[in-house]
TrEMBL record:
Entry keywords, A to Z: Isoprene biosynthesis, Nucleotidyltransferase, Transferase
InterPro entries in UniProt: IspD, IspD/TarI, IspD/TarI_cytidylyltransf_bact, ISPD_synthase_CS, Nucleotide-diphossugar_trans
NCBIfam families membership: ispD
Reaction equation(s) it catalyzes: 2-C-methyl-D-erythritol 4-phosphate + CTP + H(+) = 4-CDP-2-C-methyl-D-erythritol + diphosphate
Name of the protein in its database record: 2-C-methyl-D-erythritol 4-phosphate cytidylyltransferase
Top-level taxon: Bacteria
Gene3D superfamilies: Spore Coat Polysaccharide Biosynthesis Protein SpsA, Chain A (3.90.550.10)
Length: 220
């Protein structure tokens, strides 16, 4: 089995409020995207493609090892992953799609995803339980229902796929349909998605508080 990693790093990161794309924001002196690439390679991925904002290609090239391929992303995450898939070299039979916004994902998570793929799963996601009470609210902000949390999971990345399965699922996804992760794309094509244990350290950096927490984690 050979695996290519696609790092989605073409987002603007508006919610972080930084002066540059989120993936280039430093954490302990290294851009978030560099952490994400290192995690994939340490965890057992053979090659990496990073999907970048077209206007920032030079900055990403300067921040990453030369062996990493760069490809221009699109306006949405779905478009960016499509571009990454199209640019991946022909050798790999499995694909791991990872968010640059999850810099401190332990390589063990990558290893678990790869092991489940090797055991025959066509699609694999790392997940964590939901610990808060979870409710439905109406437009006025009034709680209308409570959702039983026991069967709920929070889904992280990297998500792993049999390559032909992921390519076919993206090809079948109608233009204009935007989904927030890749497991949703394969589920839309009727493919079962297997869960492995995620890790709290793989938390996504979205708002400034997340970056603060990540900084504390690195210093430990
Ligand atoms: O916006 P969000 O935090 O959900 O983005 C998840 C990941 O998808 C980020 O790493 C971001 O860089 C990436 N992304 C992308 N292309 C876009 C939007 C987001 O690669 N157009």
């Amino acid at each position: 089995m050979s695996a290519v990693g696609i790092v989605a790093a073409a987002g603007s990161g508006l919610r972080l409020g930084a002066d540059r794309p989120k993936a280039l924001v430093p954490l302990a002196g290294r851009p978030l995207v560099a952490w994400a690439v290192e995690t994939l390679l340490t965890g057992g991925v053979d090659e990496v493609v990073v999907v970048v904002p077209p206007a920032e290609r030079a900055a990403f090239a300067a921040a990453l090892p030369g062996a990493v391929a760069l490809v221009d992303g699109g306006d949405t995450r779905t478009a960016s992953v499509r571009a990454g898939l199209a640019a991946a070299g022909p050798g790999a039979d499995t694909v791991l799609v990872h968010d640059a916004a999850r810099p401190l994902t332990p390589p063990d998570v990558v290893t678990r995803v790869l092991a489940a793929l090797a055991a025959g799963a066509p699609a694999v996601v790392p997940v964590l339980p939901v610990v808060d009470t979870t409710v439905v609210v109406d437009e006025a902000g009034t709680v209308t229902d409570a959702v039983p949390r026991a069967p709920l999971r929070r889904v992280q990345t990297p998500q792993g796929f049999d390559r032909a399965t992921l390519v076919a699922a993206y090809a079948a996804l109608p233009d204009g349909v935007e989904l927030t992760d890749d497991a949703a794309v394969v589920r839309a094509a009727g493919i079962p998605v297997t869960c492995v244990d995620g890790d709290e350290r793989a938390a996504k950096v979205t708002i400034p508080h997340d970056l603060h927490l990540a900084g504390l984690q690195v210093r430990r």
